[in-house]
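dude i think i finally got it to work??
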Amino acid sequence: MRRVLLTVFLTLSLAAPSVAQLRVVTSTTDLADIAGRVGGGRVKVTHVSEGYQDPHFVEAKPSFVLQLAKADVWAFIGLDLEIGWMSLLLNGARNPKIRPGGTGYLDVSKVIPVMDVPTGTLDRSQGDVHPLGNPHYWLAPANGRRIAAAFKDKFTELDPAGAAGYAQNLGTFEASLTKAAEGWAPALASLVGKPIVAWHTSWRYFAAYTRVNLVGFMEPKPGVPPSPSHLAGLIATMKRTGAKVIVMEPYYDRKMADLVASKTGASVLVLPSSVGGKKGLDDYLAVIHHNVTSLAKAVE
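look at this
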């Protein structure tokens, strides 16, 4: 019996050689989804923040440290999005591969044309301004392509044997994005020039993609709660421009947005900014589709 089992084991081992898996940890669900699509069966992906969380504020749990200690790749949004918690995790993990200069350290922002890079002297009076630029770039599909290409390059560098598969997976992802965008074309056409308001500057890349006219923000400065005087000015701007939609993420308190909406006849549109930010939106394309079509319907 032992001889039979040994023969079966050897036969299976020879017939199906094991594939080395890269262990990938990402800071967000969006990066995780794209990494998984590019890596396929040659990568094992986990993520730190959830799609329903504000990625600026994440608890540095011991379980994340353990994941990073074994990781081959640490991929993050960058531009200081994770500044409040990333160093705690990397220091705890003690993994040289995923520290700055390591082979698995992937700052995805390096492949992105960054918006809102501030000039001049910065201080706290300007709010939570990111000195390196706006980090919410994944909400533009063109940057989704850039993210996928960055993963293909990194995975190929670390696992040359999988190069052909990574290239094929990238092509499949890009084709899916192209086809999806063709379906969004009518919705995108209806959004051009439409005035809207957003809670936070996180919607700047998405606004540029949809070509809506962002006439104002609920926050007077990034991360600063709206004051009565700011709200009065915003209400006047919305009445002047005809803005009828206020866009915001689900993790912000919508009380003030509802107040402004009641004064202007606008509606508050809560949109997920990441994969998993709303039940059923479990991949990157689904999030973009939901946000484009929902906004188009709201501005009708």
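The chain has a mean pLDDT of 91.
im so relieved honestly
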